[in-house]
Amino acid sequence: MKFEPRTITLKDGRSCILRPTHPDDAAEMITYLKMISEETRFVLRNPDEVTYTLEQEREILGNLLEDQGSVMMLAVVDGQVAGNCSINGMGNKRRILHRCSMAIALKKEFWNLGIGTAMITYLTELAKQIGFEQMELDVVADNERGRKLYEKCGFVETGRRMRAMKYDDGTYADEIVMIKLL
Ligand SMILES: CC(C)(COP(=O)(O)OP(=O)(O)OC[C@H]1O[C@@H](n2cnc3c(N)ncnc32)[C@H](O)[C@@H]1OP(=O)(O)O)[C@@H](O)C(=O)NCCC(=O)NCCS
Fold first, then answer.
1. Within 13 Å and on the Cβ side, how many CA atoms surround 181?
2. In Å, how far are 8, 41, 110, 145, 167 from 113, measured between CA atoms?
3. Which atom of ligand 1 is the closest one to the Cα of 152?
4. What's the whole-number mean pLDDT along residues 161-179?
5. Exposure class string for 157-168: b at 16+ Cβ within 10 A, else e
6. pLDDT tens across 94-121, in order?
7. Residue ranges per domain, the chain?
8. CA 112 / ligand 1 centre spacing (Å)
9. DSSP secondary structure string, 3-66?
10. pLDDT average, residue stretch 61-85
11. CA 144 to the chain's CA centroid
12. How many angstroms does the Cα of residue 5 sit away from the middle of ligand 1?
């Protein structure tokens, strides 16, 4: 959905704009998605699984912008995509209409500057505006920075999904389920 851009000041004094993604961001988004999947094992995709064509990505971003039940937010620093985050409804059945899932990632050079905190704060406002009653996420168990961020933003741990991720080297990682009531 569309929402008002918001400017925040980072811990290093730079400005960061939080704004909706636009189809014109497609090329940079593809590069960005490849980069974060190379930089961290805490996201779902392996680098070779970022396979969107420019046209597919344009269409996805266009649909997200028009979808009143989901948010795709970009963090932009010095004109460059630093990270993104999103909320999506869990499904269209009435019994789960109150729930949304949240995802977030940043390029490594932008970690620890306060962008994650600011994006979740803004996403929380937008999720309430849409009418969601709770935000849910899964975080890899040894993702200390992620877990700290979520706890700070009001998420509570509600469970553990054993062996949720399997890496190419054959190792597994558990995920922690976290929920924030809105
Ligand atoms: C996880 C992530 C989104 C956090 O965003 P961020 O902008 O770095 O987060 P913030 O700077 O707002 O806050 C991070 C907090 O964690 C703390 N922190 C940093 N490293 C830490 C560590 N190793 N252990 C515990 N806490 C840590 C910071 O001090 C900060 O807390 P504070 O604001 O109280 O000082 C980002 O680091 C990232 O994209 N990581 C890789 C992808 C990922 O893990 N995505 C989440 C998948 S569920």
1. 1
2. 11, 20, 6, 12, 29
3. 34
4. 98
5. eeeeeeebbeee
6. 999 999 999 999 999 999 999 999 999 9
7. 6-135
8. 6
9. ---EEEE-TTS-EEEEEE--GGGHHHHHHHHHHHHHH-SSSS--GGG----HHHHHHHHHHHHH
10. 97
11. 17
12. 23
Single pTM value for the model: 0.97
Architecture of domain 6-135: 3-Layer(aba) Sandwich (3.40)
pLDDT at position 61: 97
Measuring from each residue's beta carbon to the nearest atom of ligand 1, which residues come in under 6 Å? Answer: 40, 42-43, 104-106, 111-117, 137, 139, 143-146, 148-149, 152
Q: Half-sphere exposure of 19 toward its Cβ, with a 13 Å CA cutoff?
A: 15
pLDDT of residue 30: 97
Task: Report the separation in Å between the CA atom of 53 and the middle of ligand 1, taken as the mean of its atom positions.
Answer: 30
End-to-end CA distance of the chain: 19
User: Residue 25's closest CA among 63, 54, 45, 52?
Assistant: 54
Ligand 1 atom index nearest CA of 105: 39
pLDDT value at position 85? Answer: 98
**pLDDT, position 27:** 98
